[in-house]
Design brief:
With 154 residues, the protein is an alpha+beta fold. 45% of the residues lie in helices and 22% in strands.
Length: 154
C-alpha cells in the first residue's frame, strides 16, 4: 500500500506536528519495481501516486532536513562530479568541499547552472556564448551550479 496505512498516517501526523519530513516507503514494492524496466516502473509509480523511487524520495527528504544543496565540478571539460554543501554556503566553502587547498587559496569561481550548461552542450561552448559567470568570495552557491574553481595552491 503506497500510503502506508494507519500507522504511517500516525507518523505523518506526528512529523507534521513537529515540522519535519516523513517519507513512507514500501520495501516490497521498491524491491519489485527495481526489477522492472525504468519506463514501466515510472509509469506504475505515477499511476499509484508516487513521485519517483523510494530511494530518490528519501534522498530528497534527507537533503531538505539537513538543508543541503548539490553543486557540480567539472574537470578537463568532461569529468563532472556532484558535491553537497549546506544551503547558503559561499564559493570558497564549496571549493573547500573539493579540497582544503582550494578554499585556502580561492581566487574565483567560474559558474553556470547545470541546465544552461546542458543547453550549451559543453563548457567551451558555454564560455564562447558568454554564459559562464565569474564569481568571487561572496557568491552564494546555488543548487545545480556547475563550478570551476580557480585557486592558488600556495
Amino acid at each position: 500500500m503506497p500510503g502506508g496505512g494507519v500507522r504511517a498516517q500516525e507518523v505523518k501526523d506526528l512529523a507534521r506536528e513537529e515540522g519535519t519530513t516523513c517519507v513512507v516507503l514500501s520495501a516490497d514494492l521498491e524491491s519489485a519495481l527495481s526489477e522492472w524496466p525504468e519506463d514501466e516502473s515510472s509509469a506504475y509509480r505515477a499511476e499509484i501516486g508516487l513521485e519517483g523511487s523510494g530511494l530518490a524520495r528519501l534522498a530528497r527528504a534527507g537533503y531538505e532536513v539537513l538543508d543541503l544543496i548539490t553543486f557540480f565540478t567539472i574537470a578537463g571539460g568532461e569529468e563532472v562530479r556532484a558535491w553537497s554543501v549546506r544551503r547558503g554556503a559561499v564559493a570558497p566553502e564549496a571549493a573547500g568541499e573539493v579540497h582544503t587547498q582550494m578554499e585556502e587559496g580561492f581566487i574565483r569561481a567560474e559558474v553556470i547552472p547545470l541546465d544552461r550548461l546542458e543547453d550549451a552542450g559543453s563548457w567551451q561552448a558555454a564560455r564562447e556564448r558568454g554564459i559562464v559567470r565569474i564569481k568571487g568570495r561572496d557568491y552564494e552557491i546555488q543548487d545545480g551550479d556547475v563550478c570551476l574553481f580557480r585557486f592558488n595552491p600556495a
